Each structure stands twice: as structure tokens, then as C-alpha cells.
Amino acid sequence: MSFLSNFSFAFQKISLIKDIFEEGEYGEKKKIGIEKKDFLGVIQREKNFSEISFDENGHFKMNSRNYTLRCNTKIEPRKGDIIESFGDRYDVISVEKVIIEGKHDHNMAIIKMIS
User: Fold this and answer.
1) Which of 4, 55, 81, 82 has its Cα between 20 and 30 A from that of 39?
2) Domain ranges within the chain, ordered by starting residue
């Protein structure tokens, strides 16, 4: 069994949707539009992050709705950006640059599915 057989991932078409702002006359930010970039990346369910909550009857429930997005460093998602893939929409929670064994740099974002 090879090392990679432990991982199940596939590159998929992903869209990054960013708000474009312009500085107003008094230094305030004004939204002037959106920018959409398509790229290939990997979205995986994140096992280490979960939401813990209680339903209306007080019963414990756990929603694992957080995912990780791995993408090329040329794609720079920011907190608050929207990710779209296969009709699902995700909100970017945080982003960090990751280097694997000194060879591959990529950006890793924690994203949350928008319900």
C-alpha cells in the first residue's frame, strides 16, 4: 500500500469571490464590486475543527461543517472572502501559508460551509 493511498483528495474547480473596495473621500472603504477567480484546489472536511451546540431540546449535537482549502500560493484568499465549488458556498475563516517538507508551498484556508 502506498503512502498516498491513505489520502483521498482530488483537484476540483473552485471560484474565489473577493469584494473590491475603494477608499472614499474621508478614508472610509466603499465596496465597488466583486472579483471572481477560478482555480484548481482541494477542499477536504476538517476533522480537527467542529462546532459544538445544543438543539432546542437541550440535546448535544456536533456539526463538523469546517473544511480546509489547499491552493497554490498565487491564489490568496482572505478572511471574509467566499469560496464556491460544485454549487456549495464557503466563508473563509482564516488563511496560513504551509510548506510541506521544504518542497511545496501552498496556502491553506479554514473555510466554513454557508448553510
Assistant:
1) 4
2) 8-113
Give pTM, 2 decimals. 0.63
Cell of 104: 511545496
CA distance 21 to 104: 32
Report the distance separating Cα 98 and Cα 14, nearest Å: 19
Termini Cα distance of the chain: 38
Looking at the domain 8-113, which fold is it? Thrombin, subunit H (2.40.10)
